[in-house]
Amino acid sequence: MTVTSPSNTALHSVFPGRWVGGASLIVGPLLVLAGVLLRVRFGFFFPAQLSAYEHHPDLMTASYSLVSAGWVLLWPGVALLAADIGAHYRELAVWGGALAVLGLFARAFHAGVDHAGFQLVTAQGAASATRTVSETYGAFHVFSTLNAAIMGGWILLAVGAYRSRVLGPLRAAALALASAMPLGVLKGTTTWSVAAAAGLCVALLPLGVTACRTGPAPRPATVVGRLVLVGVVGAAMFLFGQAG
User: Is residue 1 assigned to a domain?
Assistant: First the structure.
C-alpha cells in the first residue's frame, strides 16, 4: 500500500491547513464508523429505526449524532485531499472535491430529517411517527438532486488519489467504498454501511496522521491560543444550541 506525504500545495495552504485538514481526516471517519456500529442490530428501514428510537432513545441519538457529526467534520479533510490530488490532476481534484463536499451537505440535510422523525416519536409515539413518515417519504427536496454527488464524489477522489499516487490501489479502493454508504433518511446499518465506513478509515486515517506530523511543530503560544479558541467556540456552540 502506498502512503505518501501530502504535497507542499496541500500542506502550505492557508485553508483548511494541515492541522484542521489532518484532524478532519482522522476524526471524521472514526465518528462515522462508531455511529453506524451503534445501530447495527436494528432493522434497516425507517419503521425499525423509529421503533428502535422509541425503545433506545439515548443509543439511537448517539448513533445518528456521531454519523452526522462525522460527515460534517469530513469536509476540511476532503479539501486537503483534493488539494493534494490537484497538484497532479486538477480536474479530478476539482470535480471530486466539489461533488464530495456537496454530498456531505446532502448528508447534513438528511440528518435534519432524521432528527425531525425522532422528535415525532417523542411527541406521538413510534406508530404515529411511522404513519406520518410513510405518508411523506420520498417527497421532493432540492437536496435530492445531490444523490449522485453523494456517491460520485468519493469515486472521483479515489481515482484521483490513485492516479496521483496519494493512495495505493488498495486504499484507493477503500476510499471508493464510501460511495456504497446507503443514502436517504432514517436508514439503519447494513454490511455495506460498515464496509463504507471502514473504507473511509483505512483510506483517510493514515493521511490525516501524516498531515499532522509533516512540517514544523507549532510554537507553544500558538498551541495554547488554538486550544483557548476551540474551547471558547465549543462553549458558545453549546450555549447557543441549548438556547435554540
Answer: no
Question: Who's near 9: CB < 8 A, 6+ residues apart?
Answer: 83, 84, 86, 87
**Average pLDDT per block of 10 residues along the chain, 244 residues long:** 54 78 97 98 97 98 98 97 95 97 96 97 97 92 92 97 97 98 96 98 97 79 70 72 64
Number of domains in the chain: 2
The whole-number pLDDT of residue 112 equals 96
Question: Which grid cell sits at 32?
Answer: 462515522
Amino acid identity of 161?
A
User: Torsion over CA of 172, 174, 176 and 181, rounded to 10 degrees?
Assistant: -160
Q: 171 in helix, strand or coil? A: helix
Kindly state whether residues 116 and 230 are assigned to the same domain. Answer: no
136 and 230 housed in the same domain = no
The model's pTM is 0.90
3 domain-assigned = no
Query: Residue 230 sits in which domain range?
Result: 218-244
| Burial (CB count <10 Å: 0-12, 13-18, 19+), residue 224 | exposed
**Cα separation of 233 and 231, whole Å?**
6
Q: Which residues contact 157 (CB under 8 A, 6 or more apart)?
A: 78, 81, 82, 85, 92, 96, 97, 100, 175
